[in-house]
Amino acid sequence: MTTPEPEEAPLGVLEESRFTAVDYTLFSLMLLVSVGIGVYSAIRSRGRESTHDFLVGKGSMSALPVALSLLGGVISAISMLGNPTEVYLYGTQIAGNLVGLVPGCIVIHQLILPIFYNLKIISLTQYIEMRYKSRPLRLLATVCNLINKFFYMGICLYAPSLALSTVTNLSTLASMIIMGSICTFYITVGGVRAVVYTDVMQTLLMFCGVIIVVAVCCSDLGGIGNVWAAADDGARLEFFNMNTSPFIRHTFWSTSVLGVYFMINKVGLYQPCYQRFASVGSLKVAQRLVISFLVMLYALWLLCYLVGLVAYATYKDCDPITSGRVQKPDQILPYLVMEKLTRMPGLPGVFVAAVYGGVLSSLSSCGNSIACLIWEDFLKHRPYFARMSNNAATNVVKLLSALAGLSGIFLGILAGKMGNIIHVTRSVSGSIMGPMQGVFLAGTCMPWVNAKVRG
């Protein structure tokens, strides 16, 4: 079923079901803790932190928080809201990408990490220059990375604004400004350590948020069996569509390939993730992080898909999108939360905090990695910056982090006009980064692909 958007939609909120004082308290507490972690990290490292420490945390961080940070940095509000929406509208075939995650994990574990970690590089594009002996190619790869990350930051900031505007009187613009400012502050003052330790809290919040929604709504619907039966009756259960046509939205083949691409693109060859791998003490620990990430990703995505089925079972006879009760399909989950969870004060606040946990994790990861790429690839070796003291160079990197965070606010304002967030994000990321991933994989897998020889 493809659900059209109504021509004239109301605000998409439940007027009788808004945030309570308890919800605002829990939500605000999450923001205060995030800011506090950034301030604490800054105080601990004041005057003793180099640019290398700011970007990769001295290479001695504990494995458990880094593992949780990996998941939080990759899984944003885009997944928290977008995956349930995809299942709600188009069924469960999107879950086929779980199949592709496994071979993608093997490629990272056995091929990508051993090469990059042992080279002790900070920016992944350093590998491009070392492998192909081409400075222009490295800079091209950096530009593609930056364009993709700036776009992704905008989408990440826009997605949770849908959740907050659905449950409060706060506009999407005000939401983006507030959240973008908070995120900018703590990545600027705290560096990768602040990002990692804040990610731990936010990742746990994401799990709590989706578990609460599933538990409460399944109880209202009479159990998971009734949810499954309703999804089956509505033709939402599909796992092995073997059609090879590229014009079908989801098939087993396309979603499996998507899983491989996602794992390599968003973990193996993703600058924010690599900075986390580089922050631990050995290659073996970094490889274990990949396996831990895969297990946690399976758990979180399965919960998100189940939330989509729960939403479908709840609204199969009264779709809020076609009836005009919500403006955009991606608001279906916040709408469900406010309709079903408001009888228990505090639960909507926990859910929205979970959604914002996802966006803060992803925005902080992107902002930190943007600063890393610009410093390492464009500024570090220029005479003016090369002569800087350690403290001055670190301040430049912090300024770059701040500018990256602020840019996400402006891009988020544009993101709302682009359609379904999952579809848009993957389309743009594939078109920009797909070719560059080919350059990386050719370098690691094809020894006969060498530098261009001038005649």
Give an account of the 3D structure.
The protein is globular. Helix 5 runs antiparallel to helix 12 and helix 7 runs antiparallel to helix 17. The longest helix has 50 residues. It is built from 17 helices and no strands. The chain has 455 residues and is mostly helical.
Keywords, separated by commas or semicolons:
455 residues, mainly alpha, globular, disordered N terminus
Give a topology summary:
Layout lengths: L20 H24 L6 H6 L6 H12 L2 H14 L6 H23 L5 H8 L2 H33 L4 H50 L2 H10 L18 H17 L2 H7 L5 H33 L16 H9 L6 H33 L3 H4 L3 H26 L5 H25 L10
Helix pairs in contact: 1-8, 1-14, 3-8, 3-11, 3-12, 3-14, 4-12, 4-14, 4-17, 5-10, 5-12, 6-7, 7-8, 7-13, 7-14, 7-16, 7-17, 8-12, 8-14, 8-16, 9-12, 11-14, 14-16
